[in-house]
């Protein structure tokens, strides 16, 4: 069950926050990170290795929270749009008190809240309160730092603080690094893990086969009926959960077929919220009811119009930047709706128009860039695309792109070569181990996948025959029998 919390409003701060809040000074970036340590400890994805769906939800929400906190610290910001976040919170000593939302048998509960704050301090307090975590250390932190000389306070770094172990001994706080180290020490070898979990995975896989066939049938029927390009899932939901979602969509199609046909040619993605994604996919929020889905399908023609305007805006930006292609890479960027992405592009385009940069036409053709709202300076990704902040200084942008253009071309060439090698190794591994399915999580890079496959091909692993194998960042047997192994597995301790 989700805990729904309303956005923070200034008029009710005294009711939500302690009496000392209104007289407190602002937090720095480093203090905010330190103050949120209990929260990060409670939601850290590394502790959800056996629960891949909850792990993915937390990973995505942490990315969006990071963007929100970064934007709060940008000079001259006016107001941020309300940001809805969902976290699965582990039971800890701080949040296990009576009277709170009960934890599941797995030891965590879901918390859903909306941030609409204007400073770091109120944001930190609201997050901790929403997750039923103590805020006593905030008052101590605020009082201690306020008493320091001004010069000392202005020299504080925004880097995360790693406290000495004596700090946790004397304060009684839990050391998150110690628990993570314990998790690492408990990691087993690939062969021993397969020996221990192979039989249970085979049993789960066999039990899931009827449902898998039902899922394929439902997906094919709906894709044909609505003339869809594809149906996907953003999260690692189980087969039964996916079938239930398709049945729900099928019932809606029985009563509103003509409305749903507005999605002709589209890809439908079941995810956390409804709308249209930055790349034009129709997003169906699994927590929404049929009424919300119907309204979305009715609005699709207006979304298509916005999508055409967005593509025109990308072309205009490309023209101003010498032909560089503006792309949106789902695996590497926060999940944005079409409206959010259009707003981001519009801000960047207006800055370019006001400060026109003299790029030679078509001089940067063949290169790619992604636009970010959570960065201050441009950078070049190892895959060859540029990471460009929407508020980047145009003069600095021109110098950076021109000096890195050749390196970007070299990186893109290596990326294409690496992709060919990766596909060949995937095929070879699938054939050698007689795998039914071999895939990777989006967060696993091609470099990591190539390294993993090369070492797998040197092994003899009979348990993999006929299995579904996923390359991930942790060991896990999914509820339907898929085997997840970390890309950096080793016949010994996992590579750090």
UniProtKB/TrEMBL annotation:
Name of one Pfam family that matches: DUF4461
Domain DUF4460 stretches: 24-133
Coiled coil: none
One GO CC term, this protein: mitochondrion
Annotated InterPro entries: DUF4460, DUF4461, TCAIM
Ranges for domain DUF4461: 188-490
Protein name as catalogued: T-cell activation inhibitor, mitochondrial isoform X1
Annotated organism of origin: Odobenus rosmarus divergens
Gene this chain is encoded by: TCAIM
């Amino acid at each position: 069950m989700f805990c729904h919390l309303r956005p923070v409003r200034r008029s009710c701060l005294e009711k939500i926050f302690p009496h000392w809040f209104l007289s407190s000074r602002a937090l720095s970036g480093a203090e905010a990170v330190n103050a949120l340590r209990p929260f990060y400890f409670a939601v850290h994805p590394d502790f959800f290795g056996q629960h891949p769906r909850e792990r993915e939800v937390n990973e995505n929400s942490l990315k969006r929270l990071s963007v929100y906190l970064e934007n709060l610290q940008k000079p001259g910001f006016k107001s941020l749009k309300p940001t809805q976040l969902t976290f699965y919170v582990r039971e800890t000593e701080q949040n296990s008190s009576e009277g709170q939302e009960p934890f599941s048998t797995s030891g965590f509960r879901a918390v859903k809240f909306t941030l609409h704050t204007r400073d770091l301090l109120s944001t930190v307090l609201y997050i901790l309160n929403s997750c039923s975590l103590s805020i006593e250390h905030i008052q101590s932190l605020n009082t201690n730092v306020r008493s320091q000389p001004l010069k000392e306070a202005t020299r504080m770094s925004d880097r995360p603080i790693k406290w000495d172990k004596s700090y946790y001994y004397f304060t009684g706080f839990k050391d998150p690094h110690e628990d993570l180290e314990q998790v690492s020490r408990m990691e087993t070898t690939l062969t021993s893990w397969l020996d221990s979990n192979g039989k249970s995975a085979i049993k789960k896989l066999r039990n899931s086969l009827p449902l898998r066939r039902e899922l394929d049938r439902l997906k094919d029927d709906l894709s044909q009926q609505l003339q869809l390009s594809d149906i996907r899932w953003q999260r690692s939901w189980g087969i039964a959960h996916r079938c239930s979602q398709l049945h729900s969509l099928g019932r809606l199609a029985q009563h509103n077929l003509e409305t749903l046909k507005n999605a002709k040619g589209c890809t439908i993605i079941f995810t956390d919220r409804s709308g249209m994604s930055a790349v034009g996919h129709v997003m169906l929020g699994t927590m929404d009811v049929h009424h919300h889905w119907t309204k979305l399908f009715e609005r699709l023609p207006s979304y298509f119009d916005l999508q055409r305007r967005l593509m025109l805006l990308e072309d205009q930006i490309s023209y101003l930047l010498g032909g560089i292609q503006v792309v949106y890479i789902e695996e590497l960027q926060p999940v944005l709706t079409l409206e959010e992405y259009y707003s981001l592009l519009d801000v960047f385009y207006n800055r370019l128009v006001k400060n026109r940069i003299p790029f030679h036409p078509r001089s940067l053709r063949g290169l790619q860039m992604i636009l970010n709202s959570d960065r201050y300076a441009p950078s070049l990704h190892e895959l060859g695309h540029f990471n460009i902040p929407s508020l980047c200084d145009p003069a600095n942008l021109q110098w950076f792109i021109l000096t890195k253009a050749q390196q970007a071309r070299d990186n893109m060439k290596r990326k294409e070569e690496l992709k060919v090698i990766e596909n060949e190794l995937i095929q070879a591994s699938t054939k050698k181990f007689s795998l039914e399915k071999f895939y990777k999580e989006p967060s696993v890079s091609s470099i990591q996948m190539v390294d993993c496959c090369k070492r797998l091909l040197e092994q003899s692993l009979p348990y993999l025959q006929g299995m579904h194998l996923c390359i991930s960042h942790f060991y896990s047997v999914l509820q339907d029998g898929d085997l997840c192994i970390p890309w950096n597995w080793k016949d010994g301790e996992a590579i750090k």
